[in-house]
Amino acid sequence: MPWLRNLVYLLLIVLLLPKLIYSAVRHGKYRQGFAEKFLGFVPRTQIDASKRCIWFHAVSVGEVNLLQTLIQEIEQRDPQCQCVISTTTRTGYELARKKYAPRTVFYCPLDFSWAVKTALRRIQPHLLVLVELELWPNLIHFAAKQTKVVVVNGRLSANSTRGYRRLGFVIKPTVRQLDHIAVQNDEYYQRFLSIGAATAQLTVTGSIKFDGAQSDRQNERTVELKRLAGISDTDFVIIAGSTQVEEEKISLHVLQQLLPKIPQLKLVIVPRHPERFDDVARAIEQTGLLSGRRSTITKPLDPSTKVILVDAVGELGAWWGLADIGFVGGSMGKRGGQNMIEPAAYGVAVCFGPNTTNFRDIVEMLLANNAAQVVHDQTEFEQFVLAGINDPTKANNMGQRAKQFVHEQQGATTRSVDILFSLLD
Known about the structure:
The protein has helices at about 1-25, 35-40, 60-75, 90-100, 115-125, 135-145, 160-165, 170-175, 185-195, 220-230, 245-260, 275-285, 315-320, 340-345, 360-370, 380-390, 390-410, 410-425; strands at about 55, 80-85, 105, 125-130, 150-155, 180-185, 200-205, 235-245, 265-270, 290-295, 305-310, 325-330, 350, 375. By secondary structure, the chain is α/β, with parallel strands linked by helices. The protein is globular. The mean pLDDT is about 90.
């Protein structure tokens, strides 16, 4: 079976080759880590063979950030336990290198049998931990021959479930090779059962994303960003985070509409994808408003700056602590929404568009607690901003309900680490 999967992967690469080449040339994707991805030559110089080793695989930025509380608790319980981290995307890799140094960070090998076997031989992990969901059959097949394999913070969308069901003859054996699957909620529990998992493999732990959320607006990073951004206590700050083009257009237009009447407004835009930073900068320039780019800030910005483009990876969590109004991106288009837990944890008055399928359960709970609001278009977003300015008490109460909701959901990290150590032991 592994050789058949190798053949399928090679055929897919051939079919996608024009697109891959275009992305590599136009956006710089896929260039890094060739030996790691295709051959499995992952770094091992810092790995101590005498210590227990946990290999975490986190696909991109969101999953990389999620690891922080897990790794902290693991190393607190067992300082001799070493954690290594693999990622798939360039942005995830760069963030992991910055966030988890001096730990070993590398690109995860593609799911070719020779690559995953080489990587496993070089790392010799005592545990392979897949964050959220990465069902790569060859990786799981060969890892299960020499170590334990577990999914943490597991989630499975309705679309993925339908796809996996169609591939049941391939996916079910892969799922059954997992030693444990720690899922976020009962809905995901049922979906994993439907694609072949056994009840003995599954535990509902809650979402680790709640545990990693910062709630103190006076944390060192947020205070420093406030100073650099030239933001005063009298400013009213809108942050549009993890944005796609739809949220950027809406935010900029609303700012232009309201500034003549409300001069204390400021807008911070944090695009989801680094390759779009320059495009967003050009869109901001076209407004004619005084603006600044995070990458060029060396001293505090002029207080009259109205728009700040955060063209940096991994900072959004700290920026949310400056928001009076939070607009969570990826929710006006087709992406399915981005993480709204971080602004909620700060007590921000949070809104997002109608397309939040990626966080449907969290959205449902926030809305049920009157701790967030859906805005369907530019007009509704403008009304949400105006309501926050005209009735700050109401906006603050919404934010405090959101903060309390996040606090009540915490604890998944400890439950997940308990599972990991039970497998290690």
